Structures are given as structure tokens and as C-alpha cells.
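Quick one: C-alpha cells for this chain, please?
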Amino acid sequence: MARHGPRPVVGAPGQGRFLLALKLFELGRISSGKAAILSGMGRVEFLLAAWLDIDAGSLAVSVTAG
């Protein structure tokens, strides 16, 4: 499945920072604005990338579980 949007490329130097920021945001430890700064993105770009990441994870679970 082709992915579109501001998702970091696998193995890219910023991917680890994005994933760390995403986890801290999911846990409620930091705001979306701070998570965006940590990942080197704008707030809207971070939220879109987070939504795509979470959506892809739930899609993978539903496909493998079904």
C-alpha cells in the first residue's frame, strides 16, 4: 500500500525523534506543539504524520487479525 504525506522515511535520521515524540505525545507527556518541535516538523504536519502512523498500525492489526 502506497503511503502519502509527511511520514518519515524508514531509517531516516529523524525517524527516531519522530517516534519518540509520538510516544510521548500519545502518553500525554508533551503537547502536540512540543512533539512537533522535537520531531523537527510543524504542528499540523506532526499531527498528520501521527494520524497516518496510528491509522497504519490499526490497519495492520485488523488485516492480520481478520
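The two ends are 18 Å apart (CA to CA).
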